[in-house]
Design brief:
Layout (H helix, E strand, L loop, with lengths): L6 E6 L2 H12 L2 E6 L2 E5 L7 E6 L12 E3 L5 H11 L2 E2 L14 E5 L5 E5 L4
Parallel strand pairs: 1-4, 5-8
Antiparallel strand pairs: 2-3, 3-4, 6-7, 7-8
Length: 122
């Protein structure tokens, strides 16, 4: 018996706004634009995807699970692009390590969900 990873569910105050932000950030397709379940995928029918569902409360603490993204190009260029889209820099403790040991940048989406942009694969 096996299983296939279908999607990650993201709680959001504004699922449509946050889902559209992630679709632009990842260059993914919107496959369901409902305010109750806003879903994006790398391409129609390609999983895993992200689905954004409404919640009344805002984010209160550090995520227990986050997404790591590895850019095709230079990390700093992708970080700059994401910051222009509305991401913010976040310190979740990575600044305790020596600068040359940190091969990722921690950002947060417009609702405060942390994610990492990784450097070149070693």
């Amino acid at each position: 018996m096996g299983m296939r990873w279908e999607q990650i569910v993201v709680d959001a105050r504004d699922p449509v706004r946050l889902g559209r932000w992630w679709a632009e950030a990842l260059d993914w397709s919107v496959v369901n634009a409902s305010p109750q379940e806003f879903e994006i995928q790398p391409a129609q029918g390609v999983t895993p995807g992200l689905i954004f569902v409404p919640v009344a409360e805002g984010k209160r603490s550090k995520n227990r699970l986050h997404i790591d993204l590895r850019p095709d190009g230079v990390r700093d260029s992708e970080v700059a692009r994401l910051l222009m889209l509305g991401a913010t820099r976040v310190n979740v403790g990575q600044h305790r390590a020596p600068a040359d040991e940190v091969s990722w940048t921690v950002l947060a989406d417009p609702e405060g969900n942390e994610f990492c942009v990784l450097g070149e694969q070693r």
